[in-house]
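Input structure tokens:
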């Protein structure tokens, strides 16, 4: 894997596919995708809720993992209607933390998982179309 960021929908999906492939080839514990904080500063009024910090998504062992606010969780549940092969496996609401940690089973090929991750960034986290994301761990 030679590039670690992308800033448009098509490039992000390809980045996610490449990261998933590299993660599987390396048998790494997980891969992490983070939204670029500087991309969000310009969209402060419409972007992700600051209360949970920078939006991130992790993938490992067929599970997509993310933290989300209550509003984001509702958007995630709606999104799952368009991804029937993906199901919420576990919701964790720690007492000392804001939001909910969500684990979603993702028994699909890298392309479909990449589409799902892109939809999380855009629809669940409400990021703008030109948001930059980084693969920070593979």
């Amino acid at each position: 894997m030679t590039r670690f960021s992308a800033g448009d929908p098509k490039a992000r999906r390809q980045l996610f596919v490449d990261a998933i492939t590299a993660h599987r080839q390396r048998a790494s514990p997980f891969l992490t995708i983070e939204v670029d904080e500087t991309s969000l500063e310009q969209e402060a009024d419409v972007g992700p809720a600051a209360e949970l910090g920078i939006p991130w998504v992790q993938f490992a062992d067929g599970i997509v993992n993310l933290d989300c606010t209550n509003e984001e969780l509702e958007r995630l549940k709606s999104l799952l209607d368009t991804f029937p092969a993906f199901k919420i496996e576990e919701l964790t609401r720690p007492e000392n933390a804001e939001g909910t940690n969500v684990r979603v089973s993702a028994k699909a090929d890298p392309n479909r998982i990449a589409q799902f991750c892109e939809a999380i960034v855009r629809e669940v986290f409400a990021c703008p179309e030109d948001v930059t994301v980084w693969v920070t761990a593979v």
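Residues 78 and 95 are 25 Å apart (CA to CA). DSSP finds four helices and seven strands in the chain.
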